[in-house]
Amino acid sequence: MSPIISVSNLSKTYGSGFKALNNINLDIVKGEIFALLGPNGAGKTTLISIICGIANPSQGKILVDGHDIASDYRAARSMIGLVPQELHTDAFETVWATVSFSRGLFGKPKNPAHIEKVLKDLSLWDKKDNKIVTLSGGMKRRVMIAKALSHEPQILFLDEPTAGVDVELRKGMWEVVRGLQAAGVTIILTTHYIEEAEEMADRIGVINKGEIVLIENKASLMQKLGKKQLTLHLQSKLDAVPPALAAYNLELSGDGRAVTYDYDTKGDRTGITSLLSDLRNAGIRISDLDTKQSSLEDIFVSLVRAP
């Protein structure tokens, strides 16, 4: 299947010399939810801004459903809806007026039935005559999504859509996103909330210091989450792992007073029983043990940790 968004050799260097993006290559598949994770300043918003035509690249090529964003800008941009991180709305306009106006900006003819459907899908219909200034933060965020959907885009960018939104409203937003995907909309999501990516995404990408460091299916990533780490605290200090235990790939820690062992909880055998037996045969005595399961957050932190 050909990608609906294709980013090739994309870089962005500002006039100050700061390189915000470095040789980004990324394909987004039609109908997927793609989560882009990264720390502040990693380049997430810059990448989105360039794809959406808000900022210019220094080099590289971007195709949106086959349309070049530089040479065929109008066709490419009409396919995209953007919900920015910051809330920018006309405070004293009504919900209906501001969403309808957004549709007109793309040269689309008036379509009250579509605007009504969007507002109802986002639970905004009963607020259609309310001025934006009277709405809660969560409702304003939904209005931003409605504005982005007003011209019937096939691609929706959500830049930190649940920033500043409480847990209950965040879960409600997830339901909205799933509904949009079911309707055929391709969604690219940036978020600081690891659980949001874990909950929503089909694929996850990690960007750090302007470079993509990981792109992987969530299912593959979740297999890694089946890994657990067993830490064995020793009664006596160990200077080195005995050769007889080499097959376990043990790592010394705690100044030689602990060893760690990684194992897969989803495997047929963990190897723990044989490890404990072999430790005993090697004359190594254990005082205590504990386990820790890796999380998506652990993987993220390890990928973006400065060398």
Q: How many structurally independent domains? A: 2
CATH-defined topology of the largest domain = Rossmann fold
In the CATH hierarchy, what is the superfamily of the largest domain?
P-loop containing nucleotide triphosphate hydrolases
Largest sheet at a glance? 6 strands, mixed
**Average pLDDT score:** 86
**What topology, given as strand order, has the largest sheet?**
6-7-8-3-9-10
Q: Using the CA coordinates, give the radius of gyration.
A: 25 Å
Number of helical regions: 10
Please provide the count of β strands: 14
Give the helix level as a range of percent: 25-40%
| Net shape | elongated
Q: What is the CATH architecture assignment of the largest domain?
A: 3-Layer(aba) Sandwich
The CA-CA distance between the termini, in Å, is 37 Å
Question: Spans of 5+ residues with little confidence (pLDDT < 50)?
Answer: none
Structural class: alpha/beta
CATH C-level category of the largest domain: Alpha Beta
Topology:
Elements: E1 5-13, E2 19-28, E3 33-37, H1 44-51, E4 59-64, E5 67-68, H2 73-78, E6 80-83, H3 95-105, H4 112-121, H5 137-149, E7 155-159, H6 167-182, E8 186-190, H7 194-200, E9 203-208, E10 211-217, H8 218-224, E11 227-234, E12 251-253, E13 258-264, H9 272-281, E14 286-293, H10 296-304
Parallel strand pairs: 3-8, 3-9, 6-7, 7-8
Antiparallel strand pairs: 1-2, 1-4, 4-5, 9-10, 11-13, 11-14, 12-13
Helix pairs in contact: 3-5
